[in-house]
Automatic annotation (TrEMBL):
The chain crosses the membrane at residues 26-43, 64-83, 103-122, 164-190, 210-231, 251-273, 294-317, 323-347, 368-388, 394-413, 425-446, 452-470, 551-569. This is TRAP transporter large permease subunit. Residues 1-127 form the Tripartite ATP-independent periplasmic transporters DctQ component domain. GO terms for cellular component: plasma membrane.
């Protein structure tokens, strides 16, 4: 994908021509990447499982829940296999730009579904859990058979049943993307207008956007930036600026988060980097382990707000808002959030970790050594804002730039290859979530949930204040049970029309939506950033959730300020 996109940029500006079918080829390769990575996201943090409830159950109910979770994954895999096969039979013709049968695009998810089923069964056999190896697939196959032949009369719209079934899958600790896909299949029995082939084609259509290729490129950029050593130079520069202040080491963590967010676009990447780099140093300077981890998790929120931001890419893909305008709004929102966090750190962290003040000469040398990382921000933000390149092309240029930095740092081929693999697996998990959320979003549109939301707002007075209050409450509630990416894809198109009707600037509202949902990286039960830090540091997640409360409060204050500004500065 990287070679294809970069070739298009070079040909356009170097030779005044283009690469025939570059966008289509990039999209097909992205779908292939997601299909290949589908079984790899079955376990681990990329599965996005809500296991905090199941883990508290006694052994027997926990085993039953595990069988149910496997059944959900099996049902999702069968939807990909049989839905893909059905669409391949119906779709004819060839791609006008690539010259290959159009049906092959739908065969890729079918292969991914088959690999998922094989991976699940082999994993259970390797764990010597023959009960789950047999019972889960049988239960999933039975659910797949019944979903297509049973009709249940109900007055509730199919999207509500889809949400309920997906919620049940989450409670059973099934992977989030699998829960969405399985729920879409079960919703057929409740009158869904999406039969199985349509579920698959809607999933593929949700992925067939050139903009989404920016997601794997930004993930690759962040990983290569760390591998090249440029991230470490950012740390030294941040320490030279604020290390001598009150709670200097914690303020350095915050400023590094601000600087690093302009490069990685991934809060998870920054949380993992900060947990490995800063948490031990904070503890060594007198911070309790939980508080040190909480500081790292809280500052990582900024990465998906300050550009480049994967969250804004998802929102732009779901709502057709201007990505350039969203990124500009992200600069202001990220700065406000950083300021609120700085105040919270100064008030709550005592005077641990104050470093010696350094001179201007040291600061200048630190700034010069960090220049390569700053050049990355210029490529991404100004390239998009001025219009020289598209968002996807800017992300590809950023990945190529950091690849050059990693090569200049003499990183070995094996090291760089592992970085590419890590980014590919992460991108596959995010892409699978984007695709499987598309049928849910389609049913929400068919059932006119956006119109229902607007009616509720009208009942509350229809004012901008009512819209913002209701929207923030809905987002705060859904963020507790939905992954951030899924919430953006599902709720963004529902809430945005009501905001526009109330006279709120749509870009400002989009920024508020992303900030609101990013805060949930710190809240139970999902709290992905807390779990990432917990996994790296070994500090219990429950202790981190308690320690993060002061910083969570600071971020909520920034959300309140952004919402108030939306009322003051209306178009």
């Amino acid at each position: 994908m990287l070679v294809v996109v970069l070739a298009g940029v070079v040909l356009r500006y170097g030779f005044g021509t283009g690469l025939m079918g570059a966008e289509d080829l990039g999209i097909w390769l992205h779908i292939a990447l997601i299909a290949l990575g589908a079984p790899l996201a079955l376990n681990g943090p990329l599965a996005m499982r809500l296991d905090i409830l199941v883990s508290r159950l006694p052994l027997l109910p926990q085993r039953l829940a595990g069988i149910g979770a496997d059944a959900v994954s099996v049902l999702a895999g069968l939807v990909l296999v049989f839905g893909g096969g059905a669409v391949m039979e119906m779709v004819g013709g060839t791609s006008p730009t690539l010259g290959v049968p159009e049906a092959l695009r739908f065969g890729l998810p079918m292969l991914g579904g088959a690999a998922l089923l094989v991976m699940l069964v082999l994993t259970r056999i390797a764990e010597r859990d023959m009960l789950r190896a047999v019972a889960g697939p049988l239960l999933g196959a039975a659910a797949h058979l019944l979903a297509g032949h049973v009709v249940i009369e109900t007055s509730w719209p199919p999207s509500v049943w889809l949400a309920l079934v997906a919620g049940l899958g989450l409670l059973l600790s099934a992977p989030l993307a699998h829960a969405f896909l399985a729920a879409a299949a079960v919703a057929i029995a409740f009158g869904s207008s999406l039969p199985e082939p349509a579920i698959l084609s809607t999933t593929v259509a949700g992925l067939s956007k050139f903009l989404l290729l920016a997601v794997p490129f930004f993930l690759l950029t962040g990983a290569l930036l760390t591998a090249s050593g440029a991230a470490d130079r950012l740390v030294r520069f941040a320490a030279s600026l604020v290390g001598h202040r009150r709670a200097g080491l914690a303020q350095t963590v915050l400023l590094t988060g601000v600087l690093f967010s302009g490069a990685s676009g991934s809060s998870v990447a920054n949380a993992a980097f900060g947990a490995a780099t800063f948490q031990p140093e904070l503890v060594r300077h007198g911070y309790p382990p939980a508080q040190a981890g909480a500081i790292v998790a809280a500052t990582s929120v900024l990465d998906n707000v300050i550009p480049p931001s994967i969250a804004f890419l998802l929102l732009a893909a779901a709502t057709n808002l201007s990505i350039g305008a969203l990124l500009t709004g992200g600069f202001f929102a990220g700065g406000l959030m950083a300021l609120c966090l700085a105040v919270a750190i100064a008030l709550t962290d005592g005077d641990h970790g104050r470093m010696p003040r350094v001179g201007r000469g040291v600061q200048m040398r630190a700034a010069l050594s960090a220049l390569p990382a700053f050049g990355l921000g210029l490529i991404v933000v100004f390239g998009i804002r001025i219009g020289i390149v598209t968002t996807t092309e800017a992300a590809a240029l950023a990945a190529a730039y950091t690849l050059i930095l990693a090569c200049l740092a003499r990183r070995g081929v094996a090291s760089i290859a592992s970085v590419f693999r890590q980014a590919a697996v992460e991108a596959s998990a995010i892409g699978l979530l984007i695709g499987t959320a598309a049928p849910f979003a389609f049913l929400l549109a068919v059932d006119d949930i956006a119109g229902v939301m607007q009616s509720v707002v009208t009942l509350l007075g229809g004012s901008a204040l009512a819209v913002l209050l209701l929207s923030n409450l809905v987002l705060l509630a859904l963020g507790l049970i939905l992954d951030i990416g899924a919430a953006i894809l599902l709720i963004g198109p529902v809430l945005l029309p009501a905001a526009v009707a109330a006279g709120i600037d749509p870009v400002h509202f989009g920024v508020i939506l992303v900030v609101n949902l990013m805060i949930h990286g710190l809240t139970p039960p999902l709290g992905l950033l807390v779990y990432v830090v917990s996994g790296v540091t070994g500090v219990p997640a429950s202790a981190l959730f308690r320690a993060v409360l002061p910083y969570l409060t600071a971020l909520l204050v920034s959300l309140f300020i952004l919402s108030a500004l939306a009322l003051v500065f209306r178009p």
